[in-house]
Structures are given as C-alpha cells and as structure tokens.
Amino acid sequence: MSMFCYQCQETVHNTGCTIKGVCGKNEEVANLLDVLVFTLKGISFWNTRARKLGINDEAADRFVIESLFTTITNVNFDPEVIARRIETALIKRDTVKKMYIDKQGSNFKEKLPDAATWNPASNTISEYLKKAPEVGVLSQKNEDIRSLRETLIYGLKGISAYADHAYILDKKSDEIFAFVQEGLAATLDDSLTADDLVGLVLKAGQTAVAVMALLDEANTSRYGSPEITEVNTGIKTGPGILVSGHDLLDLEELLKQTEGKGINIYTHGEMLPANAYPALKKYKHLAGNYGSSWWHQQQEFEAFNGAILMTTNCLVKPKDTYKDRLFTTGVVGWPDVKHIAPRQPGKQKDFSPVIAKALNQGNLQAKTGKKLVIGFAHDTVMNNAGKILELFQSGKLKRFVVMAGCDGRLASREYHTQLAEKLPKDTIILTAGCAKYRYNMLDLGDIDGIPRVLDSGQCNDSYSWAYVALKLKEVLGVDDINDLPISYNVAWYEQKAVAVLLALLSLGVKKIRLCPTAPGFVSSNVLKVLQDNFQLMVTTQVDQDIDAMMAGA
Ligand code: SF4
Ligand code: SF3
Questions:
Q1: CB count, 10 Å around CB of 356?
Q2: Most buried among 143, 209, 212, 260, by the most CB within 10 A?
Q3: 22 lines ligand 1 (CB under 6 A)
Q4: Separation of CA 393 and ligand 1 centre (Å)
Q5: Domains and CATH numbers, the chain
Q6: Which helix (H) or strand (E) is 13 found in, with range?
Q7: Against a cut of 0.90, is the pTM above it?
Q8: pLDDT tens-digit profile of 172-226?
C-alpha cells in the first residue's frame, strides 16, 4: 500500500506525502479518505442530475458536506469511522440514483462514471482499500487537470466545513449544496477543459463568499454581533475544560451543562473568538483563552491538567499524557479517543463524560496571563468607520494589511511575527483564523485608540475583511477594490484557507501574498494563470514585502 496526499501546506517537499502524512495520517486513513471522496462524487453525480428534474435528497446534501468536512486536514484519523461513512455514502448514492431513475428512466446514452456505479465486493476496509489506487489524486495523469480538479475539491472541502457549521445552527442554502455537488460531479467529467475547470474554481470562490456570509448570519443571529472584549489568558483555580476547534454550539451546550458546577471553561485555538459573542460571554464560567494555535497542542494539552474537548480540526496525534482526558465530537476523531455522540433531534449533546473527567481531575493551578483584545468583526469595525476614515484622511493611518489565515509548524512562518513587528506604525493589521497567534501577544499599540491588530474571529470571519473592503470601496467611491489602501498577506495551511483564498480571488482582489509557500497542488501552469490574472505572489523577505506593500505593489 502507498498513499498520495498534497492537500495541505505541510505536504512533504511541497510535492506530496507518500509514506505517511506529516499531519499524522497513515496510509490506510489516507486511502480510505480518497475512497470516501470518490463515493461523494458518486452521490453528487446523481443528485446533480436529480436536482435538474426538481428533485433532490436533502439528507444526501447534508451527508456530502459533513463527509467532505471529515476529509479536511487534521479532522479524522479513525479508519473505522471513515469506512462507515463510505458504506453510508454508497447507500445514499443508490437512494438518489433510484430517485432519479424512477423519474427519468435508466436509458443512458453515455457511459456512466465509475463513481456512479461502483460497488465493493463487501463493505470492509480491505475491499475499500483495493479501490484506492484507482481513485486517488494521481489517478488523473494530466498534471494541470489534476491540479485544477484538486484545487476545486479543496475549495469545496472548505466551503463544506463552513456550510456544515451553518447547518448545525439551522442556516442552509440550497445553492451552496447544489454547487458543492456540481463541483464534485464535474471532477468526474473528462470532457471538461482546463478553462471549464478554471471557471468552476472561480465559482467556488463566489460560493465561498456566500457560505462565509451564511455562517456569519448563523453565528450572529444566534450569539449576537461580536463585541470588543478583553480575554484573560491565564488559569483560575478550580476544575477546568479546554474547548478547541470551531463549533460554537458545542461550546454553548457545554457552558449550559457546566453552569453552577464550579468548572471553568477555557477556549483554545480557533475557539478564542467565542469570548466576544454576547450570548456566550454572558456565562461567567467562560474563563478566557488558554494556549495558542493548533500545532502547539501536544505541549499545551499536556500542561493543561483538565478535560479537553476537540470540536473540529485541527487535531494532532494525542500524547499518552493527556489522551485519557481528551474527547472528540462532531466530525473529528482519533482511534481510542472517547467520542461524544451526535446530538439527537431537539436535544443537546451529552457532555457528562467530559464534565465528570474535569471534576475528577480536580483543581487546576492558577496562572496569570496577558489580556487579549478581540471582537473586531464587521459590525464593530463599521461602528468605528467614521473614526477610521478620519485616520486615513489625516494621514495617521496609511494602510490596512490583511494577515488572516492559518498557522502551521514551518519555521519560516516566523515571517508573520516579524512582519507584524516591522510594519510601520501607521498601518493596522486585520486578522482572522489561527494565523493571529504568531503576533497577537505582541504589544503593537494603537492609532488614536484603534488597536493595530483588529481580530475579526475564526478563519471564516475573514468574511468580515471582505465585507469591510467592499464597504470602504463604496464609501470612498473607488471603482476597483485593488485601489483601496489594503494589502493582503495571507497565511495558509488547510483547505478552509483554500476556500478563503478563492473567495478573495472571486472578489477580484489582486496582489495577494501567500505565506509561506505556493500550494503544492497548484501546477506550474495553473500558478502562471493565477500570477497572470491575479498577480498572486509568495512572500519573500519581510523588509522587501513591506516596502512593496506600502507602495501598493
Ligand atoms: Fe500530508 Fe497534509 Fe495530506 Fe496530511 S493532509 S497527508 S500533511 S498533505
Ligand atoms: Fe487553524 Fe486548523 Fe486553519 Fe480555522 S485550526 S484556521 S489551521
């Protein structure tokens, strides 16, 4: 058996993980995930056709987005869970297929793609694995078509993660479901040219904007607009639970279930922005944020002596020192780590095992920490729009630098710390996602009371910066979004960042600098298209990039 995966920024030599994943994914899991994506293409093939007849299966819609989310970097490492998803996918595909054939008949003129009809000899991991070499990334021999198809699929993975978060909060969009499946089905169609695929990649960018807007609405309609909030980063005496990942409803239910029990709840990584939502910060035992971005979790989880709940990515191979106090839930999973079961209709998830573990662990040792100021999503920024415009007009503020995105292990990501330190004092950093942990503890000061780092939230809250750019364009009467005093210096790691990048491209944003590398899945020809049309660049030296950005280049 061997594997091939190049979907994230840490792929070996920026070309592909072939023996095991840097992320901890072994070849069995990597191959099963390839087969899962293949079966999702099969569902999408039939459901896209069914939709054209005015019928479709919403259960299949939800299943496709949740399963694509499962295949994102650092989400699920459990072969049994992935195998059961493949089995369910085949059942769902056949349900949709039957629905279509019942209405349209089965007189097909063209040859159906393998994904539309494949059935394993048995529903076992070994049978699924036999299929993997035929359906993995390298099964497409044309490098550019492979690159475009995979870019599309990774964008769809990011879109699906956000659509799933929105769905959990009762917001959904049929257009988004339909496009995810149209895109997946398109990767089965050998008649599509490179230009057709470029068109779909850009449409994925538009869909990424739409899904981030939907998730923004889902979050703010339930939890209110984020408010400027000082977040404690220390530890209080008393039992504690650390909650990581992106799922706000998991956090809310845990807060409800721990109320009055003397347990403090801390956020970690991408859960930090939860502290700024009025309907979450009202819980007195939401005690602050502990630790930093995902890849520090082995040290941070070990040192945090309470229970830990991982609600979504990024999960890193758990160490034995904390494995027994770690819990996963939702799409995230690791073999032998206790998993909190899905929510039943009309009920909350049952977090009692997490709560019992926290109480059993006893008091955490108190520790003081700095205060982080967060909560600068679009509403807060727009409420301060007058002041910000004044700063621009008076020359006290020269430029916004969007530094949103993901953090990662590579030493060269120190670039963003240095960039934050060296940017002229008349610039403001706009951030979102876990990339911020590279610089959010620095003292970068403020400009007339407006902090020099404005944190809008999770990676999906990059939407706020697109929103602010579009509003600024309107207010300043500028024709082209690229004439605004905004530079984009974006850090990427996993596939949600791919969706965010495609979103920016679809809005016409040019001269984006990507840190720390160009994606390994982008072939040299595809990269050239991106450079020619969008002047997409990779970051170089900090000083050189600052000079260029300040000159608008
Ligand atoms: Fe490698 Fe990234 Fe794929 Fe993991 S997700 S196997 S690190 S490319
Ligand atoms: Fe970070 Fe995984 Fe992407 Fe949501 S937690 S930004 S890397």
A1: 11
A2: 212
A3: yes
A4: 46
A5: 12-222 (1.20.1270.20), 229-361 (3.40.50.2030), 378-550 (3.40.50.2030)
A6: none
A7: yes
A8: 999 999 999 999 999 999 999 999 999 999 999 999 999 999 999 999 999 999 9
